[in-house]
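Late entry, evening session. Most of the bench is empty. Finally got around to the prediction I had been postponing all week. Sequence below, unchanged from the version circulated by S.P.
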Amino acid sequence: MIEFSVRLHINLLWNRTRRVSTSVRSDTTTVTVGGLLVDFDGTACRDDVTGELCQRFARGDWARYDEASRDGEMTLRQAIDCQTRLLGASLEEMLDFSLAGYAVDPDFVALVAWAHREGVAIGVVSDGFGFFIEPMLRVAGLTGLPVFANDICRGDDGWHLQHPHGHARCRGCGTCKKRIILDFRARFGPVAFGGDGESDRSAAHYAD
């Protein structure tokens, strides 16, 4: 059985021949999925690369912003924005660090192959820094996957995040995974979603 490290918030039915059913069982209802969205940090990649970048390159107490968001003192978007401003390295340095130290989970590569065979649309979602996702996917041999993530940019006063996939009104998260799930459902039908982070918990309620 594939031990896919995502700890999915849905029950993908793997069997011993490394195949997976397109059906997702929720209580007494079985749904055939048309789309699959998977978080990156800690999910498609077993490591939290955003956290590791903070650990290596942040100048200051970056972890206090995680604590503040968990305690309800600030939103997840505010926390990641504050952490981004602490980064004290070039994009090249941070990307080299990411590619040298971390990799996409091989079981995610297998999941992508299955999705393509079965005609299930699959994409990656992230509320982290985001810039390392597509390069890491390319190293794993995965190209052309839609990636919904924050964008990092350099200003006169340091690094900042832009949120191209944020909600028009809600500012709780940088990337609104709920909106992406609903958009995927409108295009492809029922959506399965996998992730294990703070930004995934509320979004998971909108998946099928």
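Two things to note before I forget:
Strands lie at 23-26, 29-32, 35-39, 121-125, 147-148, 151-155, 158-162, 191-194.
The domain at 23-46+104-204 is CATH 3.40.50.1000 (Rossmann fold).
Will write this up properly tomorrow.
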